[in-house]
Amino acid sequence: MPSQNDDAHRPSRQRANTSAFPFGNWRRGRAENAPTPAPPAVSQPIQFEALIEALTPPAVPSLTVARSLAAALGSIGAHSPPPRLSILHPILFKLCSAESPAPLQAAGYDILTAFLEANGPSMVSTADRLSCLSLFVDAPWSQELWEARSRALAALINSGSQTLGMETQILRMLASWIERAFDGLAVMRTDTSHEDRLERQRSVESLTALLIDLVRRPEFVSRLTEDDTAGVLHLWEKLLDRALSMSNDFALSPPSSPLVEPQSSKAVSPPKLPSHRRHHSSTSVPKLSLVKHPADIMVDAYLTYLSERIVALAPTYLTSILPLLFRSLAFYATPLPRISLQVPPPHQHSLEQRVSDLLGKLVAGPYASHCKILLKRHFFPRSQDLHVSIQTSRGALRTLRMSLRRVLEGRLARGYIARVSSYEHSPAGVPTHLALERGLMERAWAPDEGAGWDLIRFANVLARAARTWISQEQEASPMEVASHREDVLNEIASIVKDDIQAMDERGEGEEVDDEEVESVGRVMRELVVYVRTLKTPDGGLVPISLNRPEGSSPFLSAIANILAQDFKTTPLFPVLPSIILSLADHLPDRDLSQLLVNMADRQLLSPTSLAWLDDWSSILAIPNLFSPTRHTTRQHAMDHLQSVWEFVKDIPAYRKPLAELVFDVWKQHSPNELEDQTALVAWNLLADEAVLRLVERHADSPGTDECEARESFCEDILDFLDSVAREQRQDDDDDAASILTVESAALSPPAIIPPANTAVASPVLSRVASEYPMSPPKDALPSVMSLLSSLTSGMPSRSQSKPRRSTNDMPLPAEVPSPVLTAIDIPSTSTSTNPRSVGAVIAMISVFSQLVFTPLAQSRSSLWHARLVFKDLVELTSNAGCVRARLTALQFLMRLRVDRDHRLYFQKHDHDRDGHIAALAALINRAEAGPNTVEDLMRDEEVRRARPRVPQERDGRRPSTGRGGPRMDASRSRSRVPTRVLSTPMPKLKPREQMWSIPEVLPFSVAASDVSSEGMTSYDPTCPGTSESVLRSSLYLSKLVEILEGEKEWEILSYVLCHLPTQLANKHLFCGPRSKLVIAKLVNMFCKGLSDNSFARQVERWPENINARDAQGIAFHTLTVLISYRRCLETVQPLHQLVEVFLHGLSLQPSTQRCCLHALSLSSFELQASMTKYLPRIMEKLSQIMSNSTMAVHIIDFLAIVGSQRSLYVNFTESDYKMVFAVALKYLEQHNRNDGSSSISWALSQHVRIMSYYIVYVWFLAVDMPDRHRHVSFIVRQLLLANSGRSDVDGPTEVAFDWLARYTYASADPRPAKSTLDEIVMNPTLQGKGSEPAISEKTWILGNSVVTIRALARRGWIEVLSRRASGLTKFLVRAENVPMVPLGDVDPDLVSISAMLMMDREDDGDEGAGDDSTEEMNGNGDATVDDIKDALSKTAVSSPSTPRPDPVTGYVWSRSAPSQRRKEVAIDPSYFALQLSAYPDKRPAGRGRLVTDKSKLATFFRTFDRMPVIDTHKVGVMYVAPGQEHETEILRNTHGSPAYTRFLEGLGRLIYLRGQADVYDGGLDPDIDGEYAYAWWDDIGQILFHTATLMPTGDDPNCMSKKAHIGNDYVRIVWNDSGKPYKFDTLSTQFQFVNIVIEPHSRGAIAAFSNNFHEHEYFKVTVQRAPGMVEFTPVGDFKLISAANLPQLVRQISLLADWFVTVWQSTDKDTKREEIVTNWRSRLDAIQRFRDQVQAADPVPEPDDSLAGQQRLRDFTTAY
Hints:
Pfam families: Rap_GAP, Tuberin
GO cellular component, one term: nucleus
Strand order of the largest sheet: 13-14-15-12-16-17-18-19
Protein name: Rap-GAP domain-containing protein
Keywords: GTPase activation
Largest sheet: 8 strands, mixed
GO molecular function: GTPase activator activity
């Protein structure tokens, strides 16, 4: 409908003509029937007679004549007698007959009216009146007749004064007329004109006014009977029933004339007159008549009637009066303002005020008691017409509400007056005058205050009424009925709300009666029942928000306002929580969570509250408590439950009921229900209760006699946990629920509009606007049910484009569109959910942990039950209800460890301190791989470099992409094309989401983590049989074998594969006799499955880019650890299978090759017999995979280790050795071609090059000397190929050629040792004679060697020194051409004779002997017999006889390095020739270059002879005693455990530092650093170990001297007996590169001098590297090695590490392209520089064929 104020659509009308407007006709609304002007006046007698005669029957009446007669009768004066009424009777009966036309009937009634008004009441007798009364026949209502007839009746009865004997007839006649006139108003017909409705409205108003006028007259009322009164009341009842049954928005027909603007009579919106926008000259237009709502007419008339008659009516009539008034009040009911002492605003409708006033007088009047009874009766549905019953109940409740409000306002007024009066005092203490309004005083002491109007008296009946209305059946139109029924409940809720408002307005000192609080609770408990029945159109629950209590209907708003109380101040806190919890499924998560916080603050959840268990029962029964929509509520509930549980845990009287309550609730949960981490509080509670009940039951009898009885609550809980853990979920086929994660979206409500103040409670009711609408929104919905009705009918109340409000009832900003939420609220935080079986498993873990890892483990009964729980947990790893539950059990079991005393503990911290689990997880995309492996560097390089195709392995198979790369299904050979499979492939199952990854967050917590059990062990050496204190680890290990054999779930299998190696490294856990059998089975299973590639083929759901080969690759790591269990294998065949499987692994992906190479390196020490058998095949395989540069460092490490174990290659053939040389030399070729295309870094490439030469040297020495020359040609060729493309070979190759020349034909040491023969013969002082020099010396440069020859002038002795890059060779010979003069001859050769006799005695290297003897020569310098005797005696004293060295007993090596004593020395003649040749100079052999400048020689010799002839290394060794962590206390140790001592004995040889000539001392000073040290050497290198325990501490408390050596070492060996992880930076130094940590495989303190063989059978070796340093050792993350082989492995690792760190340091941590220079290379460079200097000073002329040239060539004196 267009707006009433809009003139654009209003039809135009002419300007009003007020001067010619016929007033009388306007009232009738019949302008077309306006009477014509009266005829000219005639004489009265003639007029009367003629007119009467013209109308008297049988004359035909004329309308004009009839009207003239009426006019004539009205103009009769006092001097003219009127005609008698009897003369007019025939005319009146004729005209007023029903057969007469309506105009004639109207004229007849006008004649009667004119006659009666002209003659007065005295001229008409009672008989005449009775006869005239018959003229008013029972005819239908007529627009033309009703006014004339009503005027005639009024004139007949003289407005009620002349009704004697006609009272009953008149009342019936009026009732009939009123009803017939009202019929047209009550029924909406399309053929009814607007003017007709206006006439009917005037008719009803006129007739009812006439009726009221009659009953206003006492003489009239006094003659009425009871039936007359009842009839009148019945009339009102019928009329009001019809009027009030019409809707408030009763539609009126549009006006047919522009003069009338109809208005609706809505109670909620009073009618507004149209705004007048015309010129002020039109204000003369009379006020327009408005069509009223029928109820407005009838209620107004009825109230007017009652105002006249209510006092005189008997109380019995209240039965019919009150329901009509209730209905009228309900019809006009408008929202009431908030209870306040301020003057309330006026009601929006005057009739509502009148009805309210009348009802107020009735219920407070003399019949108050009767009215209360009727009032309560009408609270309930009483009529067959449910609509009438609803209307009546609403009015009755509104009446009660207004009465209660008056009482409440009176209380507030009195309280206010009392407070004000207590403040207003004069200085003398006298109360001052109070300036109070009169109205306030009247309300404070209202007359009806003592009438008992309070909620306490009406609470029960209101509760029953609410219950009755809620249970009322809905017959027809259920939606509409429910909507109106909600209005009834809203009135009840409003009564409660008013009472709560009054509570809030009370002063601080005014207390609220507990009974009043309980009354509110009783009513609210019934009202919320209805709220729980409300549904949204899609079947969901209607949301209610306490944070913003504006509901979709007035009722819901009232309920929300009532419940939204501040628990800190409201007196309703004893009753509100339970009521709110009953509506939990309707409330948003935020409101429920705040409720729990408030309840906890008020101590309602603890035993201090009597109803605490009931409250907990309601909380735990909240629907969807564990759904994603209840995250915050669940969090608070479980947090409070945890705190309450901790409070009552030690009080059995409170603890047991709470535990039983939780147990009962948890048993009712659905198996398909999902839970998050918060639910673990309840599961742990059940676990705690089970343990406590067990402890209480066995408190008096700690034995195991009563353990078999399973009838207690403890066993009920354990059985329940076990059954829930095995529950199968319906959707577990996909197991999506087990990994379900609800994530926060951008449109989540908390993210859009955060709460205004989340730290405080919901806003209190006093701060919420009252129900009185100040400015109601235009689109506000009347009720929830009306909304449902509109949505159901397909007519939405809002625009379709407007999104629906979220379920948490949080309004959104206007500028942000509201998100359309689904049936669940999206929580604000990310939360993962799990099936119930996971919680049950966690509870069982808690039970086991408390029984084992707490002092309860001292009880045998606890251990007995713990063994049962452990058995159940083991079974659950394969039989649990879902994969997540199985994984949870594994997460616990695979972290179990034992210490050195076999005591069980759960390892939480440092669970993967070696990083092995993370490394394995990274292989299958379950962890981030660190940049510490060669494969990682290669992968990064591949990412940076574009490759045309996927790299192929040597055997044609593509490398595994298990580490994240895309997997390509290719054939095993490049030349083979996969054949087409014709059979239908099996459908590939969808892979599961990842359930675990590294870093791993455990879903459970364990009591006393990392604390050894006081009773449970894995093995009892004193009692190997069955014992309650021994955990059956073999049972668990058997289950793992079962999983590994047939597991189909990748999540389970991958977890076991990644965690099993670390657990197996704890050898004390599986050392029982049964475990040994299972270990053998495990080894056999792995060997079989990996050999035939059947392992892990049964897995059904493979993740993307992961397949069985990746699983097999991880399995090799477990096999590597199983090497340490070799004693569990009874025969040698399984050991052979292990090596064979590792050999098979070399054909797999690079990560597996790396693992197998490490395992084979370990097997070189531990499985030497098997390695000897398979080593040739291994070497052949290495030659096939060597093209992969990422494997270079691992292959080189393996070859170095094998080369150090001679027993492994005793059966090698020439071809086998060639394969070794080929591998090493191939890497040299790769390094020399390193143009940026290499996959490894420069530092690693440098290390590989150095180690490749090292491999050539080690393995060349391994070849028997007679066979070495056969390999020289191959090696030389490969070296030259490695230098192809260059103009000259590089320095390392020159060194290699020189080294080959040294060791091909001899096994002599690289440096000569001093001997007694040399000291005597070549002593110049003994050979001197006069001024003639005894010894002559000359030096030549031959290629890359410097040869010095010294000769005795007269004795024939010649000393030849060949200085080369690879060493120093010294020959002492005697020319037999010079005869030796024996004794007895003249001038005998005493020196030669004595030297020959002493040549078998070694010289101790005392250089002072020659110096002393020089002083004792005779004056002329000639050696006498006495001189020689004296020199020999000193030599003999300084060279005591020493026994042969024994490395086991720790023989002390002193002076020189006696390498000859540990090897078989042999020399071929070719050796001598090669040492004196210019080889490997590529120029033709010729004469050497004689050095004539003696000054340059001295400088060169001094510098060159200080250069080591082999590589030297220094390594620090430290012992960490039990409990030590700081560097000072570690360095101050002067001894270690026996195992440590044995390790040192095998690590090197104990040397005596004083006078040491050839062994590298590592910078140790015997006077400061001690006289002894451990060292190891061979023909290639020497290692000096800076052993902290051998260095004296002295007066250095901070051990700075020790730290000066060990802190500067690149590599440190740490023997860690501390029982704690050794930190990488324990020793504070800038040289933090590599730590080789040796520690027991099992944790625990150990005595410093413990020598238990079982403790030291195996050790775990780990290598700690500096950040950014790649892996370069065969240790990997860790290795287990036997004590016998530990020194050899560690020595080899320290050698490799020192080489790599040297390269790493020289390249500035692999950031600079610097080339490392070895000692041999330095010697070569020094020789070449010296040669260049000599040639530059004395250039050699070019050869020519001239005589001069031939002369220079033939003249040998220039060269010799």
